Amino acid sequence: MNRKTLCYCLLLFFSCQSNEQEQKDVLTNMSKPSMIQISKNAFGTAPDGAVDLFKLKNEQGMEVEIITYGAIVKSIKVPDKTGKIGEVTLGFNDLAGYLGEHPYFGAIVGRYGNRIAKGKFSIEGTPYSLATNNGPNALHGGIKGFDKVIWKAAEVPNGVALTYVSADMEEGYPGELTITVTYTLDKDNALKIAYEATTDKTTVCNLTNHTYFNLAGSGDILDHQLMIKADWMTPVDETLIPTGELKGVKGTAFDFRMSKPIGKDIDAEEEQIQIGGGYDHNFVLNMKPRTRTLIARVFEPSSGRTMEVLTREPGVQFYTGNFLDGTIIGRSGAIGKRSAFCLETQHFPDSPNQSTFPSTLLQPGEKYETSTVYKFGVKND
Ligand code: BGC
Fold first, then answer.
1. Measured on CA atoms in the order 195, 39, 99, 62, is the torsion positive or negative?
2. For ligand 1, which residues put their CB under 6 angstroms from it?
């Protein structure tokens, strides 16, 4: 049996344990052998060791670059309506940029994406305490979260799988957690991010990817048109911790059920918009649990580029780069306010302290398994 056949057999075996959509993906891959070119190059040395860069490229010219530091998506280049391939993410050209201060550009965020109130939670009566790195709260996995560690990488069909073992009590979280994040590209300009994790003690786990998108490649994102399939959102207090209520989006700035420009209501007088300084909120997605479905669509008129987001997660944090202020110099200059947006698919912020939110507990013997797809295209009007 050659290597490719063995990979297909393994994929088929594992697909028996996943959902219908995953099985369809595997069968599609089986009938169409990989057309994705994968290359690997050195990308410099971080204090913890050497960093590699993987480039995935398909026949339409779409390119995705991933580095082993932070499992970061360094770059995504896709065609515009004229066929010209261009950058649609924020990031840096060199490793020094990623080692410096930045708000999680392209990174895998964990062990807990978004905020945990006051950095405190309990599991089965045992209290745990995390570093408070965002005002009074814990944000995005701690001082040295998964965005700042070096992941082990291995090439897989159409992509790269990155693994990290987070020690028991690392950043204050219980249990040794073994995580694999697999990025794959397909021939139709879809980047899939598949997440898996297991633990040896009960813990909390909420992983996401923090790529900042600008489908025009530059300027602000106020003219991008966005649709989010969410009837509800989770309002927050002044420290951006959910109050625990669900608020209907109807008649508010948060109503993206019909596509509208991101800038239309971004400065509305509404309390929630004022607290976030724009959008920085979790939307409660209308979906069947654990089934990957289309949850958001973005269209940028000048380039004609579109992006669809599909996920199995119950929520998406829509963040409009309100804290970007021009002080960070990215690959094409100073990064200004609202020059990109994030659609971070995940469980709701502060779930470990909110008994009515979907649980983020992971038990030994269980497998955390989820996936998100960012699919790019073009439209002419
Ligand atoms: C948070 C923002 C934060 C940004 C960068 C988003 O997920 O909701 O409040 O500023 O990440 O850390």
1. negative
2. 103-104, 114, 140, 240, 280, 317, 319, 323, 344
Predicted confidence band of residue 368 (pLDDT cuts 50, 70, 90): very high
**358-370 as b/e, with b when 16 or more CB fall inside 10 Å?**
eebebeeeeebbb
DSSP letter at 93?
S
Terminal alpha carbon distance of the chain: 50
Closest atom of ligand 1 relative to the 276 alpha carbon: 9
We report the CATH number of the domain holding residue 110 as 2.70.98.10
Q: What is the pTM of this model?
A: 0.91
Range of the domain at 335: 3-378
Please write the tens of the pLDDT for every residue from 127-170. Answer: 999 999 999 999 999 999 999 999 999 999 999 999 999 999 99
Residues with a known catalytic role:
210, 344
Short-list 282, 265, 219, CA closest to 87: 219
